[in-house]
Amino acid sequence: MTKKREPQTWQGQVPLRITVAQWVKFLNDPKIFTPETMAMVYFVYHQKNRQSSASIISETLNFASQQQVTGLNRSAARKIYKYLKKEPPLSSEREGYRYWNLLFDGIPDQSVDDQGKFVWKLRTNLVRAIKIKLEGNK
């Protein structure tokens, strides 16, 4: 008998406890982090507080739309869950799984910026892994 899973709020949720070493491995795998996905996380890494919105990422990197950015984020997250053989959390709306908050987290105290756009903040261990990767490319 399968245990029924209840949806959870994204706030404060850490879907997987990915280590810095695991993030470095994922960042170096072009099947998980495509050049476009790398551009996305590098852009956010260089922003104040390591955060941005899908709209700003899309505009700055000349992507077609914010949907392309959310698609890149979801795609990388799906591949990581599959690699780790883990099931992602259910969305709070019970309409599938929540992937967006594997690479990023929201900010519960200020979930939107001054333009009303949802704020994505890079996960701490991912930030550390990006720093290692960037220092290794010097």
Q: Briefly, what is this?
A:
The protein is mainly α and 138 residues long. The chain has helices at 20-27, 35-45, 54-60, 66-84, 124-136, and strands at 51-52, 104-105, 120-122. The longest helix is centred in the middle third of the chain and has 19 residues, at 66-84.
Q: What is the topology?
A:
Layout: H1 20-27, H2 35-45, E1 51-52, H3 54-60, H4 66-84, E2 104-105, E3 120-122, H5 124-136
Antiparallel strand pairs: 1-3, 2-3
Percent of residues in beta strands: 5-15%
* Major sheet: arrangement of strands: 1-3-2
End-to-end gap? 53 Å
Helix/sheet category: mainly alpha
Radius of gyration: 15 Å
Order of helices and strands: HHEHHEEH
Low-confidence stretches: 1-10
Biggest sheet character: 3 strands, antiparallel
Summarize model confidence as the mean pLDDT.
85
What does the overall shape look like? globular
The strand count comes to 3
Fraction in helix: 40-55%
Q: What is the tally of helical segments?
A: 5
